[in-house]
Amino acid sequence: MNGRRGAVGSTGSRTTIGAAAQRPCTLVVCRGCCCGNPRKYPETDHGWQLDRMRAAADASGGRLAVRTTDCLGPCDQANVVVVQPSTAGRRAGGRATWVGFAMGDDSTDELLDWVAAGGPGIAEAPPALRLQFIRPPREAMSRARR
After folding, report:
1. Does the model's pTM come out above 0.85?
2. Which member of 11, 35, 54, 87 has the greatest number of CB atoms within 10 A?
């Protein structure tokens, strides 16, 4: 044993250890204080949106994962979803993409279509969805200080 934990896979000149070897594109869905709150946004069926995302992940054959998290920060831009690239997407230059105002069926459709096509680093996001891209809170705060 070489002292490393987990499975080791070789990808060209890089060696990837454990789960990172084949990480799928992941939707991190905010369900904190504002996002997913039916009292604040009663016109949106937040449960149905999450059910659709989870159904897409189940049907993806492991190419998509969905997780929920507490408050991500930009509450004035709810619902917030962070699209994390797959291992292949990250190798191709993809980075986590923050999407705000992700509430309606059209927005959910575009998110799911984009990740089905590969997501960040692999496929271009639909133009209307790109209009919903927001800065991560840390990046927005550092820009405001300048």
Report:
1. no
2. 35
